[in-house]
Design goal:
Oligomer: single chain
Structural class: alpha+beta
Order of helices and strands: HHHEEEEEEEEEEH
CATH superfamily of the largest domain: Cupredoxins -  blue copper proteins
Bound molecules: copper (II) ion
Number of helices: 4
């Protein structure tokens, strides 16, 4: 009876996970969000390559373990085996995983380089981490705000200059394939090019204090026209000297 329940539960979890990964339009968890940028697509491909490269080792070792548990279950007073090393086997299990790592390394380093070297930037945004919110600056437009969604145009290369005013934070938007630390006293770089309009969610990914879990990130990717309108609405109002701010004229 117990065995049946165990088998049924395992099967259920396996099938449910498979459904979640392959078919669910709105998965219950947010692991593996749909990639929304070329970088995120590369990251996803790398993820599957790595999975394929390491899965045989997991299956083989777990299978052997399971086999050994069943087959060599010790009876009382059983004599332990006395064999020692097997050089050929040891060479094989050193070289094969090393090969797997080499296979993983090529696409990984290619993607890492892509992340490090942004193409020509269409929009520069400064990202500043605070305990516990994000501040954004658009230096070109002199726009500056905090605790509001970042608004960017679709299909444009957005480069981020990240820093922090207090402790280390990390700007993490999974759908963009971007996770960049924001360090005090330093500027780190990241970039993305969102391929579709929409709202994308992220979160600070570096434990930064008591309210770390509330440092959400929202990015609104909009069309060019919508972005222009947004810029118009948010551009700074030029300060005209009023009586209160104008320099006091000396009475003569
Ligand atoms: Cu943080």
């Amino acid at each position: 009876m117990k065995k049946k329940i165990l088998i049924f539960a395992t099967l259920f979890i396996a099938l449910f996970s498979l459904y979640q990964i392959l078919y669910a339009e709105q998965p219950l968890t947010n692991w593996l969000q749909n990639p929304a940028t070329p970088l995120a697509k590369d990251v996803r491909t790398n993820f599957w390559i790595s999975m394929l490269a390491i899965l045989p080792f997991l299956l083989l070792s777990e299978g052997l373990l399971f086999y050994a548990i069943v087959k060599f279950k010790a009876k009382p007073n059983a004599k332990p085996a006395t064999f020692h090393e097997n050089v050929r086997l040891e060479i094989a299990w050193t070289i094969l995983p090393a090969l797997a790592l080499i296979i993983i390394a090529f696409p990984t380093f290619t993607t890492l380089k892509k992340m490090e070297v942004p193409p020509k930037s269409d929009l520069v945004v400064e990202v500043i981490g605070h305990q516990f919110f994000w501040e954004y600056k658009y230096p070109k437009y002199e726009i500056n705000f905090a605790e509001k969604p970042l608004v960017v145009p679709v299909n444009k290369v957005v480069t981020l200059n990240c820093t922090s005013v207090d402790v280390i934070h990390s700007w993490f938007v999974p759908a963009f394939g971007v996770k960049q630390d924001a360090n005090p006293g330093r500027i780190t770089h990241a970039w993305f090019k969102a391929l579709q309009t929409g709202t994308y969610k992220g979160q600070c990914a570096e434990l930064c204090g008591a309210l770390h879990a509330l440092m959400y990130i929202t990015v609104k990717v909009v069309t060019d026209e919508e972005f222009e309108t947004w810029l118009e609405k948010n551009k700074p109002v030029p300060v005209t000297p009023t009586e209160a701010t104008a320099p006091v004229k000396s009475k003569t």
